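Consortium newsletter contribution from the modelling node. Members have asked for a concrete example of what our holo predictions look like. Here is one, prepared for the iron/sulfur cluster complex that several groups have been discussing at recent meetings.
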Amino acid sequence: MRRHSNRVSIGGLTIGGTHPIVVQSMCNTATLDVESSVAQCVRLYAAGAGIIRLTTQGLTEVAAFAEIKSRLRQLKIATPLVADVHFLPEVAIAAAAVADKVRINPGNFAPNAEKGRASFFKLLEICNNHHTALRIGVNHGSLGIEALSRFGDTPQGMSWLAMQWLNMCKESNFDKVVVSMKSSNTRIMVAAYRELVAAMEAAEMAYPLHLGVTEAGNGREGRLKGTVAIATLLHQGIGDTIRVSLTEAPENEVIVGKSMVEYIKNHPLSHAPVTHLSYRLPSMEALTIAAACDAGPFLLDRKVADIGIDAEINGQPLSKEEGRDFVSDLLQAARCRFSKPEYIACPGCGRTLFDIEKSLEEVKAHTSHLKGLSIAVMGCMVNGPGEMADADWGYVGAGKGKVTLYRGQTPVLHSVPEREAPEALVKLIEALR
Ligand code: SF4
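And here is the predicted structure:
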């Protein structure tokens, strides 16, 4: 049964309550590049995105955001637009006058809720005046000093942080709020949402939830990570809107998200734990989504530890090796067994100044033999190092066409040209591990 949640209107769209689950995505264009951003929004609209987010780092981006919104409305595209703000309360406040929704990351908005209180109440006032919704977007990698010192980077810390800011929303009777609790670790992500749902119920709050696994990477691995975790919660009735983050063209996120929601609607979770999967499907992508939806919740909740599969894809049976590789990826996505390096890669956004999709492919090609390591490929220095906190090695955008290589949280090689960086990363790992 679906969790009871408040209805929240975002522009002309309503989420929560019994409204259908909305699939959303985010532009990876520079917001100041209005032409490219409008073109990408049009493609996202055509792919079926219900909500589109744009990175809004400063006041100049707020002006560009307003221009993008106006151009889309002239094209009769009414898709709600969300301004994504991390560090500057004054930018969030300015964005609240032009966007349909503002996303803030409480761990970055202020050192703690007490210090952010005045700015946050101002933000709520502007949101109220302009009928703008708000997302409290907690990220596992950027919880802020206070949550970290009290709870460490745990699901409890994520929930505690969200509740600090939700309490302020409740105090000021502001109810156009959506919450998210993202992590690149699928188990932490699921635990954090469950923790928050329990905390909200105890506080008689029913804010709708935006689900997502952050920095999930690309290809089959990225799809499996996102789907395993999101499907576990959707099957439990938790979630009102979803984003499947992929380091790929954002339209692909919408295609995967829509397929997942449709699949779950038509295939309720089996009552008995699933230990063998059997399918006849038209594509590997369909298999990826079906298997992650059907088996993911049992693997993620440790009700089963391994799984068998037989499948026919477009009339062709899956070979033994293909089946084994597929199951390995599924088990890794649910964090049951690790047979490859773990890649943590952000989808890229307006802050990314190098070709992150190509870089991720190259880093994977150069490091696929390094089983047991976790390697992060992140688009920017602003959020990248914090968000890749769990990674052993990091490959982080450091300006136009430049990358800085990290060992854990320590930058080791600065401003390496992106062409040379994948090889430099392998050399570094081999020299220092
Ligand atoms: Fe954008 Fe990636 Fe930086 Fe996050 S880490 S702000 S998605 S470039």
